[in-house]
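Worked Example 4.2. Consider the chain below.
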Amino acid sequence: MKEIVIRRSFKKQLNLTFMATLMVLLSFFVFLMAPEIAHSNTFISLIMAVGFVGVIFFSICLIYIIYGLLKSKDILKIDKNGFLEKSSFISGSYILWADVKSIVGYTSMGQKYIGVELKDSEKFLKSLPIIKRVLLKLNLKLGYPTILINLNSSKVDYSETLSSMAKFFDMWKLKDK
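Applying the procedure from the previous section yields the following structure tokens:
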């Protein structure tokens, strides 16, 4: 089979940029308006904290989205030896089919993902930088697969991509026997 390359959709990425900007502004508004919204000091502090955390979180998201908009266009490359997944901040590693245990469709909070379980997750985690390792361990504790491939910022069909990955993996398993 020929290598498959899935790219980001510029239009979808631009839409995400707009939404993240809106969330930063909304969080900043909540932070500034806390004294007007709440009438006790406890609630003012709580609302300001929520606004502050929102500004920080959504600003980080916005920076990552803009970086993705300007830099990396490919979010998934699939070939006969494995795949390179770059759909999120905690991804970016080339995974060999030999290291894959299973590939499954996965849905969480209305979002569809391609879930990849590895034969040795610990070995994979040790090869990652500390921040990615910590974030992936949090995902694992929440019951998610080792690798979640998010195709929401692409134009491709989720089912078609899942099927293609499964075919590549099945071909590798047959070749390996």
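Residues 24 and 57 are 8 Å apart (CA to CA). The chain has a mean pLDDT of 88. Compare this with Example 4.1 before moving on.
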